[in-house]
Design a protein that fits this description.
With 194 residues, this protein is of the alpha+beta class. Helix content is 32%, strand content 19%. The protein contains 5 helices and 8 strands; from the N terminus they run E-E-E-E-H-H-E-H-E-E-H-E-H. The strands form 3 sheets. Strands 5-6-7-8 form a 4-stranded mixed β-sheet, with helices on both faces. A hairpin with a 2-residue loop joins strand 6 and strand 7. Helix 4 runs parallel beside helix 5. The radius of gyration is 20 Å and the shape is globular.
Length: 194
């Protein structure tokens, strides 16, 4: 390329001879195994045009597909998990997931406009600790529900959870109760939740 770096290429087998294409340009469907331009698949919200196989979306891909452009305001971005039970290797696993996903935790919360309607949103991302609910995930979801109630906003949550986070033990299980209570208050106030 212009700066003298070598581009990476992937070999894509086809009916004709193997062809080299820039790495990351193509995506193979996990369902029908056909190969598509990555951008074509992204335009179709990661659904295969041939077999309708749904490929996972990251939290940010889902938010961008849902809200009006440049309207999302993230809440509680800097909340991060600690290791309250001194579980061996937990801090390293959290750091690995933060690097892998570019997220601080397994959920992104905030508000944005959907076709002009302001809406509170929580989107879990299974790439981070399998979307498990630890102290911070539960806290972020509960806070988002409470803000939606206080601001009289509809609330949408996309769940992709592996359950309670075992590295945080009973503290993780307590978040299930906390979020359920927040949902109950939201519901009793007449809030719309999807």
């Amino acid at each position: 390329d212009f700066f003298g770096r070598k581009r990476k290429y992937a070999s894509i087998p086809g009916e004709r001879a193997k062809q080299d294409v820039p790495e990351g340009l193509m995506k193979k469907c996990d369902g029908c195994h056909k190969i598509y331009y990555r951008k074509e698949m992204e335009k179709n919200l990661n659904v295969c045009p041939s077999c309708d196989h749904h490929h996972p979306l990251s939290a940010w891909e889902r938010i961008e597909s849902l809200v009006d452009p440049h309207s999302f305001e993230e809440w509680d971005k800097n909340l991060v998990s600690s290791n309250p039970l001194n579980f061996p290797g937990y801090e390293e696993k959290l750091k690995q997931d933060q690097l892998k996903t570019d997220l601080n935790e397994a959920v992104v919360t905030g508000k944005g406009f959907i076709d002009g309607t302001e809406t509170a949103i929580a989107v879990m991302d299974a790439r981070f600790r399998m979307g498990s609910m630890g102290s911070v995930v539960g806290e972020k979801i509960a806070r988002a529900i409470e803000k939606a109630r206080e601001e009289s906003l509809p609330f949408i949550i996309f769940t992709a959870s592996g359950g309670a986070r075992m590295q945080e033990g009973v503290l993780s299980l307590m978040q299930m109760t906390k979020t359920s209570m927040a949902i109950e208050r939201f519901s009793k106030s007449g809030g719309l939740m999807i």
